[in-house]
């Protein structure tokens, strides 16, 4: 069958259902909770646009036609994550009209006897440790492209779908909790209680630049950074074990860096990691991980760990 008569793709993968479902769910939530509704007109239009765009890609982009088509069809969700994240800033007070940081701090102090970021403040400035943890934190922005691009070049399309399904579930559950339990994070809530500054010559200012220009105030609980980084780590250990060992210290440093840098409470990290682990478990249990024959002519060295074990 020639390319011009090849039927368009109509199959929705789990990640497609998540993108479309989350978009439509947010439309419904905003319609019922957003007051005054006119204030949320932009949000409604945004989520409808995302759902329509996903449906158009599913319907009209044929991933078997070329690798450029496959690039768009497989990776479009990753290109949407940032925009979904930024949109949460306008929906932070859909349900409540305040942040709940005081509850988080009280809970951590009652359980631990201290608030971790205030405890860390006693040992600042520690420039080199700050730089190492800031480097790990900054690596978060490289994890998605650093994983997805090699998978795409290896033509591991199934791996891309698996990882993006788990990552999407982690992101979307986190984004829902943002407005169900809004918290602005320690760098704002505890600002007046810190004595020392978190300083570093290179990576700390770089992370601060990103946070100042792209972060949403109120997206602290949970730490989606930690959740998605854990998904990437678990995926690598399952499918590309050597990459998993390389990623392990980065993810540990990233999780520690979220607290050290005052971006998240320890509770945010624990909840975010739990969501990521749950999302990965759902992906594994869904059956999409079952072994499939390797493409004809694919070198054995490119096969994933689970396919050659």
Your description of this structure?
There is one protein chain. This protein is mainly α and 309 residues long. The protein has a domain at 97-308. It has 14 helices and no strands. The protein is globular, with a radius of gyration of 21 Å. The two termini are 37 Å apart.
Label this structure with key terms:
single chain, 309 residues, mainly alpha, globular, disordered N terminus, disordered C terminus
Order of helices and strands: HHHHHHHHHHHHHH
Approximate strand percentage: under 5%
- Principal-axes geometry comes out as globular
H/I helix tally: 14
Q: Uncertain runs with pLDDT below 50, 5 residues or more? A: 1-8, 288-303, 305-309
The value of Rg in angstroms is 21 Å
How many strands, which pairing sense, and closed or not: the largest β-sheet?
Answer: none
* Overall strand count: 0
Residue share in helices? Answer: 55-70%
Judged by helices, strands and strand pairing, the structural class is mainly alpha
Cα separation of the termini = 37 Å
Mean pLDDT: 89
């Amino acid at each position: 069958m020639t390319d011009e008569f090849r039927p368009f793709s109509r199959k929705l993968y789990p990640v497609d259902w998540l993108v479309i479902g989350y978009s439509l769910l947010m439309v419904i939530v905003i319609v019922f909770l957003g007051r005054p509704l006119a204030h949320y007109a932009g949000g409604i239009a945004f989520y409808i646009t995302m759902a329509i765009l996903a449906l158009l890609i599913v319907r009209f982009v044929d991933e078997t036609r070329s690798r450029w088509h496959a690039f768009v069809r497989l990776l479009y969700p990753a290109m949407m994550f940032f925009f979904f994240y930024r949109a949460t800033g306008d929906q932070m007070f859909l349900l409540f009209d305040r942040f709940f940081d005081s509850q988080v701090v009280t809970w951590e102090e009652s359980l631990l006897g201290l608030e971790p970021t205030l405890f860390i403040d006693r040992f600042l400035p520690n420039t080199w440790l700050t730089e190492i943890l800031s480097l790990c934190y900054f690596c978060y922005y490289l994890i998605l492209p650093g994983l997805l691009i090699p998978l795409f070049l290896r033509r591991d399309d199934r791996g891309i779908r698996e990882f993006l399904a788990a990552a999407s579930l982690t992101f979307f559950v986190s984004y829902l909790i943002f407005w169900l339990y809004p918290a602005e994070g320690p760098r704002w809530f505890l600002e007046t209680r810190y004595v020392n500054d978190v300083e570093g010559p290179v990576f700390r200012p770089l992370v601060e630049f990103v946070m100042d220009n792209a972060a949403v105030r109120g997206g602290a609980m949970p730490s989606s950074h930690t959740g998605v980084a854990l998904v990437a780590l678990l995926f690598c250990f399952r499918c590309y074990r050597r990459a998993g060992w390389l990623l392990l210290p980065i993810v540990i440093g990233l999780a520690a860096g979220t607290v050290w840098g005052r971006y998240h409470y320890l509770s945010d990290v624990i909840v975010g990691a739990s969501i990521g682990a749950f999302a990965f478990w759902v992906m594994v249990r869904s059956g999409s991980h079952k072994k499939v024959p390797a493409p004809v002519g694919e070198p054995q060295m490119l096969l994933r760990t689970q396919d050659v074990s």
